[in-house]
Amino acid sequence: MKKILISSLILAILQSMLFWHRQLGISVFIFVSLVIVLIIAALIGYKKVNNKSGLLLVVPIIMLSSTYFIFDNTFFKVLNLLVIPTLILVMIILVTDEKERIRSFFPKVFALLFGGIELFEDVGKSLKGNEENTNTKKIIKAILFAAPLVLIVIVLLSSADSVFGSIFGNITLNFFNENIVVNILRIFITAVLFFYFAGFVLNIVKEQTMYATIDERTEEKPLKINRFNINVTLTMLNFIYLIFCIIQFTFLFTNVATTENFNYAEYARQGFFQLMFVSALNIIMIFISTINEGNQGSDNSEEKNKKYTKFMNVIMCVFTIIIIFSAFYRMNLYEAAFGYTYLRLFVYFILTTELLLIIPTILYIVGVKIKLLRVYISIAVIMYLILNFINIDAVIARKKYKQVF
Fold first, then answer.
1. CA separation (Å) from 321 to 70, 240, 281, 352?
2. Is-contact 116 202, C-beta < 8 A?
């Protein structure tokens, strides 16, 4: 408890020093690294590490935080502010979850984000200074007492070294140059974040918290839907996909070059959204049909229905692959005519990711024992890392250069 409170106070103070009125850069890498150290130390200290392989997500988290001082891409700087915390939450869930229940994944995300608020009172009580927490109170008071001297030293060192000053110099200048109301607001935000950081970690490691009890409240219960209804739905959907794929082969793949007034932009957008719709529907139907345990009939008829369900799911995946290639083809036509842009490259990456996700999905359907959620996360993270580090601006520039020359 003492270490968590002290670490949370340090993080709260550091966030104010690193981010208040400052551009995002190496400060993100420093702060994220310290957050990861705090979380992993708490998980190990309280023996909450049930799945060490989940710690592998530390690598992409640190890599993404390093992009803030390696590249200067505004789009990814904003997007990664959402992606990095999301990956931290996913890492915690994978590390602490023994069974990796897909059904409880999103409730656990919610519990991680807001469960710590319930523990604010516990954090406050720990600061009152009872016998058990006297040392903690003394250490926190000592840190607050030393803060003014630390600020003075930072000012002196910043004036002595320009590199050090570029990182820390404006911290004290911003603080002393602002009016009292802004400084009070800054202190208030720091205090709130201290409580949040401490509550967040306690929510993970303590017993009977919102996060710790989420599995009990989302107990796995068999999903019972008449398998005949599922098979009828799959059959009807696949019939629609069959018609759509026939149209792709008879019109788009063979006649696009001779079609007058062909709208490249419209086809690219349609192909992409059709793909997203079909992929999402496939995943939903696959989970419903594989998790479902309810059916009426003899064991023999039940086994036949299960085989038919698997067959229909596999067919649905095949149709999805065809639609992916249709979307690729449309985007290629559009890109060849008008060149690369951020959006067009993102479409390529999303389509490639969807195509890669189909492979483990088919394996999962036919009965291969894989942890589908973990495979999905791994593929998505790897593709997103590639997207961050390929330097999209340089790719677009090279394409334009080739088109000109």
1. 36, 15, 14, 10
2. yes
Query: Which pLDDT belongs to residue 142?
Result: 75
Quote the CA–CA distance of 315 and 238 in Å, as a whole number.
Answer: 7
Separation between Cα atoms, residue 125 and residue 198, nearest integer Å: 12
Distance CA 216, CA 218 (A): 6
CA 225, CA 218: separation in Å to the nearest integer?
Answer: 19
Instruction: Report the Cα–Cα distance between both ends of the chain, in Å, rounded.
Output: 65
Q: Tens digit of pLDDT for each residue in 204-262?
A: 988 888 888 876 655 555 556 777 888 888 899 889 888 888 877 776 655 555 555 55
Considering the entire predicted model, what is its pTM?
A: 0.78
Sequential DSSP letters for 133-181: GHHHHHHHHHHHHHHHHHHHHHHHHHHH-HHHIIIIIHHHHHHHHS-HH
Alpha-carbon distance of 245 to 228, in angstroms, equals 25
Question: Token pair 């603080």 is at which residue?
Answer: 175
